[in-house]
Specification:
The chain is α/β, with parallel strands linked by helices. Strands 1-2-3-4-5-6-7-8 form an eight-stranded parallel β-barrel, surrounded by five helices. The protein is built from twelve helices and eight strands. Helix 11 crosses helix 12. The protein has one domain: Aldolase class I (TIM Barrel, Alpha-Beta Barrel), CATH 3.20.20.70. Helix content is about 45%, strand content about 10%. It starts with 9 loop residues before the first strand and ends with a helix.
Length: about 300
Amino acid sequence: MGDFTKFGRILVPMITPFHKSDQSVDYKTARKVARYLKENKLCDSLIVAGTTGEFYTLSFDERIELFKQVKDELAGEVPLIAGVGSVYVGEAIKYTQIAEELGYDAIMVVAPYYCKPEQEGIYAHFKQIAQNTSLPVMVYNIPLFTGVNIAPETLARLCEIDNIFAIKDEAGVNPLQATEYIRASKGRIPVYSGDDTMVLQVITQGGVGVVSGGSHIIGHEMREMIDDFISGRVEKAKELFQKLFEVFVSFRGLTSRINPTPMIKAAFEFITGLPTSMPRMPLLPAADDEKEFMKKILKKIGKI
């Protein structure tokens, strides 16, 4: 398996706070969120402007400013990964080059979305970005949102590019693809689950960890569960997963939300007191009944 030790097993895609008055980016609170995640040891690495960070609603300038603010807050304290995904490869390269200039440790690149490219187009997209940076590149596969799946055969070709170092896979969509990725890449590419509910299943197949939005809330329990499983304490890991599963379900809200970000942001605000609960439209904030539902779950597991 390729080396993942620099970045660790728990990578948290940091939420992006927005002001409730006008939904502009709240950079001051963003710095506090980053500091909280680091100081409370909720992550091994921090991803800025990932899906949980609502990158798709950020303007170019907003995303760059977010990179700058988090880098300034945590420079050298924890590995930082810049989410540089864009459907246009030229824009993704611009984000990448600025992240490299700022001193980021790696980039995460989501598969091209909406346009549904063929596998050759997906390969060309990642190859061109990787060839325009010396930073390590994490490939991000989330067909639930992009509408395309990175085939194992495509990953096998991508892992021949020296600076592509890992893949994040939305394992809930294709539970056995972690095995297919590992087999296709001959173990050269570490696989991270992109789904909190699937981390044990992915590690069982040979995966190394998780990119976990839920670890804003349950990062310590996530680490304990992973450590228990890897250390052979399988029953303990299973029991903890059963406990956490109720939390994962609560992130769907009361209307089976596809995107859990508003619920994660609300839960984080309950726990920390930081003003983070506002998502940016078209996502809507957690409704009052959803907040009450979430509070009951958080009280049940001792978080509030």
